[in-house]
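Q: Structure tokens for this one, please.
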Amino acid sequence: MPVGTQATVKAMSPRDLEDLGATVILANTYHLYLRPGDERIARLGGLHAFMGWDGPILTDSGGFQVFSLAQRREIDADGVTFRSHIDGSEHRFTPEKAIAIQENLGADIMVCFDECADPSDYDYNVEAVNRTHAWAERCKAAKTRQDQALFGIVQGGVFPDLREQSARFLTGLGFDGYAIGGLSVGETKAEMHAALEVVDPVLPPDRPRYLMGVGTPEDLVECVARGVDMFDCVFPRDWAATAARSPVPAV
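A: Here is the predicted structure, written as tokens:
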């Protein structure tokens, strides 16, 4: 999925994306909530009209910003309080708030609010998985629109027992699809592949699997072989292709 963080894929028009064969675009709930605002986008007819894109759109929940904006947020059992990277103002995200924002945005696919944690800290991942599961239950209960799909997000870092536990719990709740989060955030490729191999036989084979934030050409091949259907990545296409061929990591 091409990434249109702020409701546009940089340097590309909707016609360009159609010509390239893009079928789904990703947009960022957190950033669109801050600017121009989800309620304004709703008044303008939703993301499809706002972007001029007739195809499917997936919105994330703001869960990755729990990880990427670690110096600007505080987590508790109920949700997350952020300080805006734009003006420092305070904003509160709960599972219910994340669903309400995504319903205003009008994406075809929403994802549950979750906590993306340091993949190598076992004790903290136990806490994050428990929060993610509790928040998934609340997200499902908060959903009101029948024209939007909702994906649960499997967490658990690089730990097989936590990954399996998360996949089984979310499968038990029953979602339209399943995202796999908390990977490509510092772990090795071998650890990422091992995590996918754990969840592949657990997740329902008749529901899409979406690996969040992964998308080099090598990753696509390796991860499709491990049961993944959908990907998103902010790497420019030419950069990703070059990086995959090069023995030296790109800077």
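A few notes: Residues 122-142 form the longest helix (21 residues). The mean pLDDT is 92.
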